[in-house]
Every structure is written in structure tokens, then in C-alpha cells.
Specification:
The complex is a heterodimer of chains A (622) and B (351). By secondary structure, chain A is of the alpha/beta class. Chain A contains 23 helices and 23 strands. In chain B, helix 1 packs across helix 7 and helix 6 packs antiparallel against helix 9. Chain B contains twelve helices and 13 strands. The chains are: A alpha/beta (622), B alpha/beta (351).
């Protein structure tokens, strides 16, 4: 599978893969099980139309997800948006495309050629695609002619034109316009005029299709009741919201794709919910000069007692290396969101990977290691944001939250988020009164075997409150020391703290029947595809699998037990070098290592179930 | 009008300052720097200045980078909270700490390598934001801990002990700071006790970024013939731009001055900075004149010292952010975690 992915990526950087299962779709209706791919030019304003389409399907009660497969470019390059509707609740990317909406002249031919037999294609009439194949249902639409009729202002036509395909798709998929209109009105909530204009375009598309087309493909949508009470949000907004409810007060950041929208969401929410009656803010946001300053500010703020965070991606992580080591060694709280993208180097800024695991686990020189939290859904982006601030202060160390582009920048359906039940845990901070009682303190003394010392905050009004924070080797009382016993005591204590972290991080989610010989381990955004793949291998090959979804590093007992309980355990991840598998090898008993197998997907396109299934089946020899 | 005795001689060293602390309360650990190092003299002046200004040591955050200079916070004010960060990146840490607690004072100690080479990026952005910090550059023109390589403030033509001549021009951190909008910019010499103390006290009274470049000879690697950072060179080439006097706000003394020869600057805390002109055209409120003076004297091989520029009414960075009055760090949960109804409302809108 890995090889195939590389070929796909190298070929034309195309998200549509014809796949190995390109059989003709049987006649008859295919209800609530389809993928739509909309091919446009970056910057052509298709986002609103795609969002309306997504929200209309959501409004019909059908489980749905949307993905933006976009270039690192502001305008002019090809971009694809894929929507998946699934009665079974599968929301990962589907490898096969069922309906293509070809709006980009440059890619239209390829978009159609890569379809599997039986698919449908809505496209701009002038592209003349229908002669390309005879096994695809073609629906040519004169977009320019239609838009001229509904949008008198020529300069707005480019923006509104896309809404025509929403109308055509609605007719094609038998979606009632009564579900499209509220979705559209919501999209243009405060812009009545824009809403009316766009609604006109939807109607024009619908009417044109109704008048001119006969349905020749099986794909239809029927109302269900599977989305009631659910929300749609992207992972970055969810994490930003989590930070607001985590009581984060200081943000220092440097814009970088795909993490930018996390901080921007925090800014939006904080401006709404964290300004007091007198107009003053309970938060400070600084756009730093670079990522070094961003994490420097976070650690400075954490040292002085604030809940501070930054959000970044690969290249920013690299720049944060030295400070991360200081955070580990001087024991400073701070939260770093890494919304991972394709590396190495500048890599693929707008493509997905889970390839910063090793970098973040050991970021910085020397014996440095960091706690990672790994959200596997937008809900966990929110929940782990809150958990991260508690952990950072309890453990007095930087916490890395390992999101990724697919999770962070794409819209996902979710249960509504739950208000934090527990009060904030600010960790061991001594007050002036406690210092008087204790008669002073030693900052790095382990008093209870947890490895965690007590700290004071700058400004604590006591003559013995101050201590000297440093990245140089130090004794319990923070004095500079190169004595071997001081050094060893200190770093061994940090290891005890690491073991304490192991008891505090979120436990993995385990699905175990006790009968399966094959175990699967995955994490982050891979979860969606993996769940679907388990059903595929069960239904198509009769293979039962157990599943463990990792949520944190260091690993916990459950993971070791899970590996021990299976003959073969496949670690499924979105990077070339099997980074999670490597981390596991470092942490599990040697005799278990031989059980580990690897399934990797690293083309930059989000992982899909079929790719996992094909690879698993091949390695299992089924 | 009396124009002398701008800084009245203290009658006798008082046992306590005006908040009742002894100078002992401002002391630090024993220095590990070389005997005669200019940095030790600067540490002494910092102790004097904070003691005489009656600043509670617990209200001070001592921030530093890496280098000989950056070790020195261990040698003064042990009751202050200290953070020896990483090389060249202290300004960001100091900024973050001030965001967490804007009620604290920040004292940054850096060196010429830590500021003008590896730390240039953070230095300029700290100034651009007017972060309220007293930032001291202990400037000796060489890297001491790595045994005497030139730094970026070393003058062109200056000679290393090994005979190597510096063929690159110096970065003038003061001219740069003025250009970038620093609101208090001065240069002094570690050997000039009186001037350095007066400048430090005025700096403590200032709100905003203070940059003080203190020429601080390195007795081990840069105090020889041919160096432009030696004690001897400074004694021969130090040209004060003004005589610096300071009348703190809490001293109820009316000291007369001649407006014709002396510039009086009312500081943020009500103190008065008295600058008696020693050079023509001196105007500490003019950026262009300050930079002109620095360039002219620099071209003559002179080291101009004194307060070059002061601007007292520009809002500091923490003021610009419109933060609540209390430190963000210790706001209670009910002020930083919105109510459940807020989350429920957000969820409703996302449905």
C-alpha cells in the first residue's frame, strides 16, 4: 500500500484514486452511501457552496464529513473538496469517488478518467467530457449561461456560480430543496442579500437539471435521523474552544499552516467570552516574531503562573527544540499544539501526516522527553486541550497536543462537547503562608516519590519564595551544580516524574473481544478509517480484529497488555517511518516487539479504510 | 539658581531604605566571575539602585540569557525571582512572564553576544513592543565563556589578545534601540559608579523598554592595548553627553536647576531625571539628535555615554493589551472559565 501511495502522490498529486475495486456499480438505488468530489480552482470561492452541500446532507440526518484537499497556494492551483455521506456512520475519506463535480478545466479530464465505472459526473458543459468514457453518467451544465440569468452583477458571478452545482447535485441526489435552503441561510447568516443571490443560483441549478436531465446513476440521499443533536466543527476550532474553557490566559504564536486557525478560533471565542464587563481581557495574545519567541513567551508565562499555549506545525516544532528542552529540564508548564502536516522540511504544508511523533517525543538535545496527548476526534481536540493545561501544571512540564491537518482543518460531525466537570488543577504552587509554615522550600525536592516538586510564583510575598530557574544543571535548591550526585539525583527524579505522567495521561480506547488473534493500533485521525476497515475485513474476509487507539505518550499498561494478548499487532499510522511503532519498541518488553507489524500511509492524502484493508489482507495472506 | 549637587550626597549610608529594608536584603550569591570583571561592578550598582529606590525584591523578576553577563543575576538580589533562560532568547521569556503578571518589574541582564548576535531578533521585537523591562547589555566586545572571540559590538580595527584584528563594523545597540522606538536609551561605563547608578535609578522609574548598554571591560580577554573595550580605552575616550542626576519621587527635596543648561524629565513615577548638558545640541527627547550625536562621536573614536533618549508617555506593551488589573496568572477559575451556559450556546449554534 505504501508503494502505491507514493506512486499516487508522485503521479499528479491527485486525491482521486481509482483503486483496485473498480467494478461497475450494480444497477438500482444506492442510498446514503456515497462520496462527492468537487474539483475547483483554489481561490474561486467554492468553500461556501461546499459547506452548504455538506450542511444540507447533515440537515437530512445523514452522517457526513467534508475534506478540503488543497494546495499551498492562495489562488490558481487545483483544489478538491470531498464529501462523504454514509448511513453506517463512516466519516473517513472514501477511496473511490462516486460523484465528481468538475469545475476546473485544467483537471476535468483527469477527474473523470480516474472515476470508477458507474460513477456520475457533473461538469461545465464546455469541457466536453462525455466522449472520454461510456461507463460514467454525464451531466453537463452550462454554468456561465445559468449564472448570467440569476446574477446581474458580473463581478459577483464568479463567486455565486459555484452555488449552481449545489442545486444540480440536490436534484441528482434527490435532496429536497427544503433542506438546502436552511443550510444556505445559515451559511450567510448575517448577509441577507448574499443569501438571496446564492439561493437563486441553487434554484437555477436545480431547475436546469430537472428540465434537462434523466437520472442515469444509482446515488441518492434519503432522510435519516442520525445527526440530530450532533454538531459540525473542525478540530482547530474545537481545540481553540477547549483552550478558552481551560482557562488559558496567555497565547504567543506565529502563524503557520495548518495550525493558524486554532489560534484564530481561540481569539474569536476569547473575545466573545473572556472580556469582562469593564471591557478588559482575561487573556493576552501576542503574535510573536517567530516560533522561538512563541514558545519562549509560553514558558515565561508558565513560569510566572499563567496557563499559556502556542500552536504550530512541523517547521515551528523544529524551531522550538531548544526551548522545549529548557521546559523539560527547568520544569515549566506550557501547552504546545502541533497540528501536523506533511514533512520533512517545508514539506507539504497543506497535506496531512502524523510524522512529528518522534520529533516531539524527544524534542531538544540531551535526555529530553515529552508528554504527548493525541486527540482522535474533534471532541478530543476540545477535551485534550483542557486536559493538557491541567497536566502541564500538575507535571510542571510542556505538554504537546498532537493534532493533524485532517482533524484540525476539516469539518467533522461530533457529539456536543461536555462542560469540564473537574475544577482546574493548578499543580503544586506554594503560597506565602505555606512558606511560613514550612520555613522555606527546595524547588526540586521530591517529597513524595512522584518526582514532582513544589514551585512558587514570581511575586509571592515571602523572603524565601524566590528561586533561581535555569537550564544549567542544578541541585534541589536550584543552585548551579556539576556534582555527579546532584546531576544524577535530578535526572533520576525527572524519570520518576515521567512514571507519574504515565499514570495521569489519558488511557487508550480498547475494543477487545478476547477471541481475535490480530490486534490493530492506531491514533489520531486514522481512527475514522480504521473503524471502517475493521468492518471491511470482518464482512469481506471474515477476519475479526481487536483495536486499541492510543491517546498519549508515555504509553500505559493497557497497551502492553493489548500487544501481549495478540499474535500479531498492526500499527497503522500516517508517516513513512513507522514512528509510533518505533516509540512502542522503546517502551514495551523486548519479547513483544516481534509481534508488531506496520501499515503506513503517507501520501499526504488522508488515510482511507480501503487502503488499510488491502494492506492488512495482503500481510495476513488472506 | 543652584546648578550643582544635582544628586545630593547622601548624609551617611542609611541603614534601611524607605521601605525598611537593608542593603543586605538586596545582596546575592558570591560571584564566580573573574576578579575585576566589569560585570561585578554593574551587579553592585544594580543592588545600590534597587536598594536606594526602595523596590521590594520580591516584586522583581531577574531575567537573563546565556554568557558571563547572564550568570550575574545569581550575584545580586537573591530574594528576587530569577530566570536564566537560553542564549539570546530572554526577551520572549520576559515578555511571557510579564503577560502572566504585569504587576511585576522585569530586569533583564544580557551581554553583547547574547543581544547583538544570537539574540538580535528578540531584542528588536522587545523594543518594538515597548515591553516594560529594564534591559542591561553588559558589553565587553568579546565572548568570554568561549575564551575571547569578537562579538558584534566590537569596533572595527579592534585587536584581540591573539593579534586578530576585527574587520567588521560594530553594531551600535543604542542607536539601533533609538531607531526601533525604545523609550529610554542610555550608555554607561561599569567604572563610572555615579553615572551608572543615576541612570539605573531613572531606568527603574521608567515605564517601557529601557536599554542601557554598559561598557564592561573583560579583564581576561579584552583589556589589552589595541582593544576599544579596555579600562584604559574607556578612561581616555568616555565622553558624557550630560551629567546625569536623579531626584526620586519619594524624596521630598526641591533641588533647583537651570533650565538653560539642564533638561528636567519627569519620569512615570514622578521622579525627576536631571540632565545637565555637556555636549552641544543635546536633546534627550529627539531621536534624530541622539542618533546624530552617537554617530558623530563614534566616528571620532569616542564612547559617548549618558541618557540619549527618553520618552515617558508611550504606553507599554502590557498597557496596550487592555488586560484586567490583576495578574492573569492567578485569576480565579470563575474569571477564566466561562459558564456552562456559554458552552451550551456554542454547541447549539454548531448544530
Amino acid at each position: 500500500m505504501a508503494t502505491q501511495d507514493v506512486a499516487v502522490a508522485a503521479g499528479h498529486d491527485r486525491p482521486a484514486e481509482s483503486g483496485s475495486t473498480a467494478n461497475a456499480i450494480p444497477p438500482g438505488k444506492k442510498i446514503n452511501d456515497l462520496s462527492i468530489q468537487i474539483a475547483t480552482v483554489n481561490g474561486s470561492g467554492s468553500q461556501s457552496a461546499n459547506s452548504v452541500l455538506l450542511r444540507s446532507i447533515f440537515g437530512m440526518g445523514i452522517p457526513v464529513s467534508g475534506k478540503n484537499l488543497f494546495p499551498s497556494n492562495i489562488a490558481g492551483l487545483p483544489t478538491w473538496y470531498t464529501i462523504r455521506a454514509s448511513k453506517d456512520g463512516y466519516v473517513a475519506r472514501k477511496k473511490e469517488i462516486d460523484v465528481v463535480i468538475a469545475m476546473n478545466a485544467e483537471t476535468a479530464q483527469e477527474d473523470v478518467k480516474s472515476l470508477r465505472a458507474g460513477a456520475a459526473a457533473i461538469y461545465e458543459e464546455s469541457y466536453q467530457l462525455s466522449q472520454l468514457r461510456d461507463d460514467v453518467a454525464f451531466y453537463p451544465v452550462p454554468f456561465d449561461k445559468l449564472i448570467a440569468g440569476v446574477c446581474p452583477e458580473a463581478k459577483l458571478r464568479k463567486l455565486v456560480k459555484n452555488m449552481i452545482y449545489v442545486g444540480v447535485a440536490a436534484w441528482l441526489l434527490e435532496m429536497p430543496l427544503t433542506v438546502v435552503e436552511p443550510a444556505l441561510r445559515k451559511q450567510f447568516a448575517k448577509k441577507q442579500k448574499a443569501a438571496d443571490l446564492n439561493w437563486g443560483a441553487v434554484q437555477a441549478g436545480f431547475e436546469y437539471a430537472q428540465t434537462n436531465f434523466t437520472k442515469k446513476d444509482p446515488f441518492v440521499l434519503e432522510p435519516m435521523n442520525e445527526t440530530a443533536g450532533k454538531i459540525i466543527i473542525d478540530g482547530n476550532a474545537a481545540a481553540g474552544l477547549g483552550c478558552v474553557f481551560a482557562g488559558c490566559t496567555v497565547v504567543m504564536w506565529y502563524p503557520i499552516t495548518p495550525s493558524t486557525s486554532l489560534v484564530e478560533a481561540f481569539i474569536d471565542y476569547a473575545k466573545k467570552f473572556r472580556i469582562e464587563a469593564d471591557g478588559k481581557a482575561t487573556f493576552a495574545i501576542v503574535q510573536a516574531e517567530d516560533e522561538l519567541a512563541a514558545i519562549g513567551g509560553v514558558l515565561g508565562a508558565g513560569w510566572a503562573g499563567a496557563r499559556a499555549m502556542t500552536a504550530t506545525s512541523g517547521p515551528g516544532i523544529s524551531l522550538m527544540a531548544e526551548f522545549s528542552g529548557l521546559g523539560y529540564y527547568a520544569e515549566l508548564p506550557g501547552v504546545i499544539f502541533d497540528v501536523q502536516r506533511g514533512g520533512p522540511s517545508t514539506g507539504m504544508p497543506t497535506r496531512n501526516q502524523q510524522a512529528d511523533l518522534l520529533a516531539c517525543s524527544f524534542l531538544s538535545h540531551g535526555d529530553t522527553k515529552h508528554v504527548l496527548l493525541i486527540p482522535g476526534s474533534v471532541k478530543e481536540c476540545y477535551e485534550m486541550a483542557i486536559a493538557a493545561f491541567d497536566l502541564a501544571e500538575v507535571l510542571q512540564t510542556p505538554i504537546f497536543v498532537m493534532s493533524d491537518l485532517d482533524l484540525g482543518m476539516n469539518n467533522w460531525m461530533s457529539e456536543p462537547f461536555v462542560y469540564p466537570e473537574k475544577p482546574m488543577d493548578r499543580g503544586r504552587v506554594l503560597t506565602a503562608e505555606q512558606l511560613t509554615e514550612l520555613g522555606g522550600f527546595a524547588r526540586y525536592k521530591d517529597t513524595d516519590g512522584s518526582g514532582i516538586g513544589s514551585r512558587t510564583l514570581p511575586g509571592t510575598n515571602h523572603p524565601q519564595a524566590a528561586y533561581f530557574t535555569r537550564g544549567t544543571s542544578h541541585n534541589e535548591k536550584t543552585a548551579y551544580s556539576e556534582r555527579p550526585d546532584d546531576y544524577i539525583n535530578n535526572v533520576e527524579r525527572l524519570n520518576r516524574k515521567w512514571e507519574t505522567a504515565r499514570t495521569l495521561v489519558p488511557r487508550p480506547e480498547v475494543v477487545q473481544t478476547g477471541k481475535a488473534k490480530v490486534g490493530l493500533i492506531a491514533f489520531g485521525s486514522t481512527d475514522f478509517a480504521l473503524r471502517e476497515s475493521r468492518d471491511q475485513v470482518r464482512n469481506e474476509y471474515g477476519l475479526e480484529t481487536d483495536y486499541l487507539r492510543l491517546k498519549a505518550f508515555p504509553f500505559t499498561r493497557e497497551t502492553v497488555d493489548f500487544i501481549a494478548a495478540h499474535d500479531r499487532v498492526y500499527v497503522v499510522e500516517q508517516n513513512r517511518d513507522a514512528q509510533m511503532l518505533s516509540l512502542l519498541k522503546l517502551d514495551i518488553p523486548a519479547e513483544l516487539i516481534v509481534k508488531l507489524r506496520s501499515i503506513r500511509h503517507f501520501s499526504g492524502i488522508p488515510i482511507d479504510a480501503r487502503s488499510i484493508t488491502d494492506e492488512l489482507v495482503m500481510q495476513e495472506g488472506l | 539658581m543652584a546648578t550643582t549637587a544635582i544628586t545630593p550626597d547622601a548624609p551617611k549610608a542609611p541603614k534601611t531604605n524607605h521601605i525598611g529594608l537593608q542593603v543586605l536584603d538586596y545582596r546575592g550569591g558570591k560571584t564566580t566571575l573573574c576578579a575585576g570583571c566589569g560585570h561585578n561592578a554593574i551587579s553592585e550598582r544594580i543592588i545600590d539602585a534597587f536598594y536606594e529606590m526602595g523596590i521590594e525584591p520580591e516584586r522583581v523578576m531577574k531575567m537573563s540569557g546565556i554568557g558571563c553577563s547572564s550568570k550575574s543575576p545569581a550575584y545580586f538580589m537573591s530574594r528576587s525571582f530569577s530566570f536564566n533562560t537560553v542564549h539570546g532568547r530572554m526577551p520572549s521569556v520576559a515578555t511571557g512572564a510579564l503577560l502572566a503578571n504585569k504587576t511585576m518589574r522585569s530586569l533583564g541582564v544580557s551581554g553583547d553576544g547574547d543581544t547583538a548576535s544570537i539574540g538580535m531578533g528578540q531584542f528588536v521585537h522587545m523594543i518594538r513592543r515597548n515591553v516594560p523591562i529594564l534591559y542591561i547589555i553588559e558589553d565587553n566586545g568579546v565572548y568570554g565563556l568561549t575564551k575571547g572571540q569578537f562579538s558584534a559590538t566590537a569596533d572595527i580595527g579592534s585587536k584581540l589578545k591573539t593579534g586578530v584584528i576585527n574587520d567588521l563594523p560594530a553594531i551600535d545597540t543604542c542607536a539601533l534601540a533609538i531607531q526601533l522606538g525604545a523609550t529610554f536609551v542610555a550608555r554607561s561605563f561599569s567604572g563610572d559608579k555615579k553615572q551608572l547608578l543615576a541612570i539605573l535609578k531613572a531606568a527603574i522609574a521608567h515605564n517601557g523598554t529601557v536599554v542601557i548598554d554598559v561598557i564592561s571591560p573583560c579583564v581576561t580577554f579584552n583589556d589589552h592595548e589595541g582593544s576599544t573595550r579596555s579600562y584604559k580605552y574607556m578612561q581616555e575616550h568616555d565622553v558624557p553627553i550630560a551629567e546625569t542626576g536623579f531626584v526620586p519621587s519619594f524624596e521630598d527635596i526641591a533641588v533647583e536647576y537651570d533650565p538653560g543648561t539642564t533638561v528636567n524629565v519627569r519620569m512615570h513615577d514622578g521622579s525627576q531625571l536631571r540632565l545637565k548638558k555637556l555636549q552641544e545640541d543635546y536633546d534627550p527627547t529627539s531621536r534624530t539628535k541622539a542618533i546624530e550625536a552617537l554617530m558623530e562621536h563614534g566616528e571620532r573614536g569616542e564612547v559617548l555615554t549618558g541618557v540619549f533618549y527618553v520618552e515617558t508617555d508611550k504606553p507599554s506593551f502590557t498597557e496596550l493589551l487592555n488586560l484586567v488589573d490583576e495578574p492573569l496568572a492567578t485569576l480565579p477559575e470563575e474569571r477564566v472559565r466561562p459558564a456552562k451556559s456559554v458552552l451550551d450556546d456554542v454547541m447549539q449554534r454548531l448544530m
